[in-house]
Sequence to fold (622 residues):
Amino acid sequence: MDCKKFVEEQIAEIKQTVGSATAINALSGGVDSSLVTVLGHRALGEQLKTVFIDNALMREGEPQRVVKTFADMGIPVELVEAQEEFLSALAGLTDPEQKRQAITDTFYAKVFGRLVRESGAKFLLHGTILTDIEETVAGIKRQHNILAQLGIDTKDAYGYSVLEPLKTLRKDGVREVCEFLKLPAEISKRIPFPGPALATRIVGEVTRERLATVRAATAIVEEELGDSDAFQYLAVLLNDRATGIRDNKREFGQIIVVRCIESTDARIATVTELPWYKLQHICERIISEIKGVNRCLYDLTPKPPATIEYI
Amino acid sequence: MDCKKFVEEQIAEIKQTVGSATAINALSGGVDSSLVTVLGHRALGEQLKTVFIDNALMREGEPQRVVKTFADMGIPVELVEAQEEFLSALAGLTDPEQKRQAITDTFYAKVFGRLVRESGAKFLLHGTILTDIEETVAGIKRQHNILAQLGIDTKDAYGYSVLEPLKTLRKDGVREVCEFLKLPAEISKRIPFPGPALATRIVGEVTRERLATVRAATAIVEEELGDSDAFQYLAVLLNDRATGIRDNKREFGQIIVVRCIESTDARIATVTELPWYKLQHICERIISEIKGVNRCLYDLTPKPPATIEYI
Fold:
């Protein structure tokens, strides 16, 4: 792949399409939206407004870390606090589709929709990649009509444009371009992290307390596997509980699943054959450091038939 | 341990206690109740009536296999069909304590209680081992007052006796005695299997359909790990479901946990470091052979803080 050509063409196209208007994009900190943010700023400079929405579902210290990474590159990112809006939309929901829908609706129709309208921007930059499009066509992902989701109806939509500069790339291509652009390792080497964030790693209801549990497990897994070459590694909090025994008393504890996979583009994945001492150490930390957790399981399932995430 | 002395003493004590009366015992097929059955028959011959209660919770072909193993040793075991009684007692229950209680109540107060009364036996042989007593004292197991559980009240209880010939042994001692007696490997080498049987390996409601799922997974795990030297290996059906992808379609599938442990007496246990090809092969069989299952996890947790079983 000719990265130089790709970057030049996308910058030129963004510039030409947006002209002297203003554009907006939401940065999640993931490699796709990060690359879109960098390409967008190279093309548009201050004409592009980039927001990072704190949805309460991010990892430990993540919103601040992402904003700083971009500030260090001279790209201003506005941190928008929206924790309560997301948590109240998720309260009481246990069905995976309903949870995903609540997050999508809150993100687009409420928070980002409001930001778009307030900004006056008519151009939206979005980090769609080829795999997203393929999975939507295959019925695995739900169709996203971004403008409709933003609450911009067909009539109002006149004049709005969505730009998807990465839509011809898969994940490995995105990384290649990031490396070509010499973006910091926090971006180019960042392991994939889903849009609905830690909510995809909670089976059952998403609450502040359960988020804290899976966030702590995620921090341990990322710390312990940060030096592995795995494609992705994560922790999942199950809704089921299992009997355990602590201080000679019965304890009905929570269960964390550790998942670590090898893949090039997330379409198919195999399970990483981690060394046993590493698995045991991760288990030991999870059951001793996280209150209420007394089981730790390792996911053995390739994709397909399992997906990488749990919901 | 002096096995010869132990066996002689227990047989003598059973003989002396029961005299010319009749006794009864329930055989589960586990090593404890099997040894009690053998000792009891050596002591009492036809004065001991042994029943195997088919509670619908056993493994594939297990009731018939156990009866045949004892028939081959010249010990008659009566197979009592009680599937519906157990399944209707379990219907709708998801709380582990309530499930255990329903099984215990159905076993003692209903099925075995009826058999005891019908038999006229006043002596009950029971396979309690030292670990059971210790865990009851520690509050990990619930107190069992066997006579009360049988619906025999204090007044009626006059004249009833419960004999627990294994109460000074731990699991390894029980096995040693079985080997000394040259009992078939199906008994002496049999991996531990809990009293509430497959119900302890179903998180959530126990139904015929869910029993069939965990029974199929159990058969695969036992087939694949039968030649391992592990202390115990088992499969658990979780109540949670996870998103998967099969034939390019989203699938909300069931999850099986594989557990394999090293232990000498079940009080503490470590996880077996199985070879990866074995874990992958078990996973592959479980997700392809069992309808509706699309995840397979391996339990990394030692006991404590996890127990061996899940409920």
